[in-house]
């Protein structure tokens, strides 16, 4: 469905061909594009009288979220984030908002379907309102999509928080670095979308009615919440990293303790052997027939006592 | 008490049978359900003309807190948290708020009784006001119930904070993980209930009067306080975990110190034994009759001196 | 002075007997109770027509700060904290605020005297205003008393912050735990008093005039400042505890270093002794007449060199 | 282009010679200076009647951002930061804002060009507005230039955050110190520019119209965001430094572990050798023909077993 | 200049003798005292009809910042901080603000001169305004003086932050403790001055005109900024202390590593010596003529290999 045009007013919501755009003066016209062919863009651009810069932005697809004012329309770029196969990707959403139309361009089919359903099912009174409310619906949906993304991140962050104590392995550091990068993407995106919404709320666009501004405030609150969550997760990651370092340190110390225990057991034994290696003229034990075996037996006994003592002290 | 219907106005508060609902046009009608049979729900649904989606939500019982607007009523879902046998559980509270009635569905008998008492005892002027005030009373009660839950968590958190220093055992980590999960549940619940109340305050529902909005602001403040407390406890847990890691590290180091002291006592003794194990032609001590015993005695003396010295230095 | 009744207006402030309460219709009447006998409470209760619940609360004396509305008066409970012999205690202050009277009940004689002086000295224009301003004066005094308490805590916290580095002894942990508990009490008390004041400011009581609300805002600001201070001290305690753990760790490591230095000095000596304990046929030194003493001398020299070297390196 | 004078109104934007300044009473006059000769400054100073203090400030070029009010104009100093060859430098921007003119003096050619383009291309409706809007454009541009600077810092900070774990080398500390100093410069600059903008917004200058104040609010928000980012990066640096210390500590401990393993392997071998160095009369092994080689073989076997055991335990 | 009296209005600013105070009814009178003799204070007190408590406060000179209302004037105490020979001292500034006069008493000559210059040079339109604006000028100057103090502290804090890593010496802890105490003084002072200004802004004094309140808001913002800076520096100190502890720990560990390396080199050598100390009947090496020297040579070789290996591993 590369191109769909819908016209709706309080009475009806119908699909129309692109060339009939002018035949519905009392309807809100929604032109929905998705992976359009170049000539489709061009024909729409000439129909809506789009500025070459707008067309260029939509073609290149690498612009950051922003709002640009033109005399006859407002050009809005925003991001819709989602996790695809553990990879965080940002779908672009381009919107051209005019007096009685909204043009949208995005590869996020899911969002298009979602808004179509809202319009067709007459939900949220969309059909009673203008194209700016439709644009708000898109922005709202885009911001709502932050939540599943953050939920996924939260799951990883929470698991990491447990793992850094239980199994402080090197790969957890890599997971943390990945999540940190994802959070950076989310924060940057949220930051810029906040700017977009804040700019629309301040009345930069004449096509946004005061009534829609009230709804935008809601979206604005959600984006602020998103940013707070990002900060929270980032804090948790930082403290998890500290805990990881402590865990590694404690594991190392635990090994050191084991090694030191071996050393501590060997030293008294060596000492005893050294004693009977002394060359004194008169050392009665050396003359005993079973002196050697008695000393070996004593060494074994001493080892057992030391191990038992360390066990009791919970050092082993 | 699966089903109770109460009708009240400024003069009286009486229990009525369900079928008499229409006979009290000037009363506020409160239909209270608790573990209802399916046909009870159905008969009420047809009486109040409930949407199938509302019925489905109430039947399944796993929905998150939210507000849904319908032309004739507002459907509100919220959580009422409590600790049952050390387990944090979230009772659902479903409310259908209409022009002159409120339907509530919850398994939390305690809350139903509490509100019934308020109505019957004419407290807080409930009977002078509409069903929205009754709904507020429920929301208020639900949010108030966060406090005992957080008190219980605070007790555990405070004890953990002491224990991580005094007895840094592994099981404390498990306790901390459990509390952390409970805090997560509380935070999520509070987060969503805040959204519900914020949505009602913004006037999303036509059945909420401005007067009740003022009271909702109070509930909103309480939920914000709850969220602050959750953050505080979370911070304490994080810092307790760091302290735990330091405690474990210090315990390990203490053991290392003990072991090293044993080693440090053995080494000079071994050295002395080695000295008399040397094969020099002329070593006068070796010829002494009691040289061996003199050396043994000196070793014992040296050990005593070292132990005394370490004691004095407070190393033992 | 279990019972004192004062009547004042813009012209005069006089002590009157309780039974003359009705004879001064144009005066503000202040009934001040302190450790009253039961019959005194009862006679006042019947005079002021107090609700049994109010009387019960005042008798039991264990209620938390709160505000209760009654048709003819507002019942306020608040805490006045102070340190008595290093113990943090919370004196209760009960107030019954009516149209032209204020009844106060507290054991905190100091506060009663303070307010009496203000009234008698005609300070702050108290006598030009109603009983709500008198109630405000009490609340203000109660909140002001947080400051000396927090000053005392600050002194301890600051000293602890120094001591954890200089003398990381176990008893400091106990001091920290005690202070932490005191802070908890202060925070809880401040939290609830904030609720009380916030409730009075929102106009819950008809006996509070708008003019007094402005003054209450001031008290509200002070209680918020108190809570900020509590958080600050708590943060300092947490970071002090971390520093304590590091201090202990560093002390332990310092001991380890001393022990390791002893070991490091012994090992080369033992090695030399071992060398001359070898059984080679041809070892010229063994044949020397003073070989033994030469080796002993060399060992002493080596020890001196090592100690000098470690000194130079600042390891000792 | 040391000196350029532009005059513009809603119809046109033209370059004019300095002496024609008075011939365009209905135009906004923009006098742009860059590395001016001294006599140029003097001639402009006499034309605009500049106070000697203003001239002195512009000559010396080391003043901090500030606003000074004079009867006929407002004198504004601000910073424009940029990275030049990894060095953070602050270009000064001096502005003299009068009723119908703006004089600017800066070495930042890039910013001059940027604003010239905006005026010539009639962007942002600059030409419909007064010289205060032109001054705002400069301030806005200056604040926008914080972002690339902070982006560069962010890149370094993020890399440092990874490196402190992977390669905790000494030079990273130096990088951190450098970035910390850059952040200090940015913060001080942002702090003072905030003061400048805040002062202009409060209406300190009669040459700033209310309409421009609205735009200044936008710049104010951006500068606040800048300061938040600076704090964030600073926090990351602090926590990175902690991680660096832990990393260094863990590397050291790792080395200690290796050394201790060597010691732990040597000790049992030494013990065995000591045993056969004992001088007991009756030690059967000593008499065996291949006893010596048997013991050597056993020592090699024991070493292999210990190494295998340590490998299995993942200590090596 | 213990006593100076200036009278000014929009036309002139002249010094007058004290006794002529009443001869300039249309002028603002500024009585400036500095280290006054007691009889000077008394004569002024009787002229201005000062309350004995005010005179007492000014004589004793140890009062904390506060505002006291009297019928005919407002009495203000504030602090002016400065560093004198590395010592932070707080000069008191006492002000008595009446309807048409301001009396100031301070030892801070610098501030008096500063304000005199402002008046004489007719800066900031002081002479067009009342004595409250003059009082504001003093308060503003006092708050401005926080900045150089904080700059000095910042320099120390930044240097400490570097030194704790590079040279973690004991004296840095003392510097930190000193700075921490200075910050405490600044915070307390700022806290109380904030209270003073906040009280004046709320209209507690009838001698403060609404116009001056606007200017006071500016001072209020500055004092808030001061308090934020204090918190920032305090945070840096806390984290620096943690870094110091880690630095000390790492230095200790570095020493331990050196010592352990010595031990690790000695142990294999000792082992070899022990081997040739065994008493086996048949040990061919013992019979070799140069066996002893071969073994000594092998020991030297082994030592060299170990040192080379440790060098390669970067352990030395």
UniProtKB/TrEMBL annotation, chains A, B, C, D, E:
Listed CDD domains: TmCorA-like_1 (cd12828)
Topology of this chain in the membrane: Multi-pass membrane protein
Protein name as annotated: Magnesium transport protein CorA
Organism from which the protein derives: Methanooceanicella nereidis
Family recorded in the similarity comment: Belongs to the CorA metal ion transporter (MIT) (TC 1.A.35) family.
GO CC annotation terms, alphabetical: plasma membrane
Function noted in UniProt: Mediates influx of magnesium ions.
Gene: corA
Spans traversing the lipid bilayer: 259-278, 290-310
Keyword tags: Cell membrane, Ion transport, Magnesium, Membrane, Transmembrane, Transmembrane helix, Transport
An MF annotation (GO) of this entry: magnesium ion transmembrane transporter activity
């Amino acid at each position: 469905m590369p191109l769909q045009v819908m016209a709706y007013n309080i009475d009806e919501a119908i699909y129309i061909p692109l060339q009939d755009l002018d035949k519905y003066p009392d309807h809100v016209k929604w032109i929905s594009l998705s992976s359009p062919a170049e000539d489709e863009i061009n024909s729409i651009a000439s129909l809506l009288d789009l500025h070459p810069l707008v067309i260029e932005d939509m073609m290149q697809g690498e612009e950051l979220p922003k709002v640009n004012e033109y005399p006859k329309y407002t050009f809005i770029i925003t991001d819709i984030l989602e996790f695809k196969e553990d990879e965080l990707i940002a779908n672009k959403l381009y919107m051209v908002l005019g007096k009685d139309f909204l043009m949208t361009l995005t590869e996020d089919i899911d969002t298009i379907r979602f808004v179509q359903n809202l319009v067709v099912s007459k939900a949220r009174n969309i059909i009673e309102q203008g194209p700016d409310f439709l644009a708000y619906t898109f922005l709202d949906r885009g911001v709502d999509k932050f939540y599943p993304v953050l939920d996924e991140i939260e799951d990883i962050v929470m698991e990491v928080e447990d793992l850094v104590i239980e199994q402080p392995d090197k790969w957890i550091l890599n997971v943390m670095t990945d999540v940190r990068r994802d959070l950076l993407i989310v924060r940057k995106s949220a930051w810029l979308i906040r700017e977009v919404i804040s700019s629309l709320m301040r009345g930069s666009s004449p096509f946004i009615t005061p009534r829609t501004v009230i709804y935008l405030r809601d979206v604005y609150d959600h984006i602020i919440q998103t940013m707070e969550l990002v900060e929270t997760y980032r804090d948790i990651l930082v403290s998890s990293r500290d805990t990881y370092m402590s865990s590694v340190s404690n594991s190392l110390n635990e090994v050191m303790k084991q090694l030191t225990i071996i050393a501590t057991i060997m030293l008294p034994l060596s000492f005893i052997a050294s004693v009977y290696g002394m060359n004194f003229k008169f050392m009665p034990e050396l003359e005993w027939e079973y002196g050697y075996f008695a000393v070996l037996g004593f060494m074994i006994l001493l080892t057992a006592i030391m191990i038992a003592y360390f066990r009791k002290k919970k050092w082993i």
